[in-house]
């Protein structure tokens, strides 16, 4: 069975963990602690084929620059999240997250997600 590894990145408090918890549990939780690193795995159907989807949540806060790249190994998709209410999180898509994405050993598909953020 094919496995797709999807890594969520973005500034702290843009809603990465909220988005993943909502998707994996089909519920919207008002309060959720920020993640350092968390993984979610499940099978999904893509064009009639079962695929294992692994979702990796990473910490966007300052101080985790050395740890985040460990989650990027063998990633297939890089999901960059930013908050519509935070111009700095949008600016960091270009200034911080795009360079981090390109720092790996191979090209990754990038998906950009606008969220409302947690503030």
UniProtKB/TrEMBL annotation:
<dbReference type="GO" id="GO:0007264">
    <property type="term" value="P:small GTPase-mediated signal transduction"/>
</dbReference>
<keyword id="KW-0342">GTP-binding</keyword>
<dbReference type="InterPro" id="IPR001806">
    <property type="entry name" value="Small_GTPase"/>
</dbReference>
<keyword id="KW-0547">Nucleotide-binding</keyword>
<dbReference type="InterPro" id="IPR005225">
    <property type="entry name" value="Small_GTP-bd"/>
</dbReference>
<dbReference type="Pfam" id="PF00071">
    <property type="entry name" value="Ras"/>
</dbReference>
<protein>
    <submittedName>
        <fullName>Ras homolog gene family, member Gd</fullName>
    </submittedName>
</protein>
<dbReference type="InterPro" id="IPR003578">
    <property type="entry name" value="Small_GTPase_Rho"/>
</dbReference>
<dbReference type="GO" id="GO:0005525">
    <property type="term" value="F:GTP binding"/>
</dbReference>
<dbReference type="GO" id="GO:0003924">
    <property type="term" value="F:GTPase activity"/>
</dbReference>
<dbReference type="InterPro" id="IPR027417">
    <property type="entry name" value="P-loop_NTPase"/>
</dbReference>
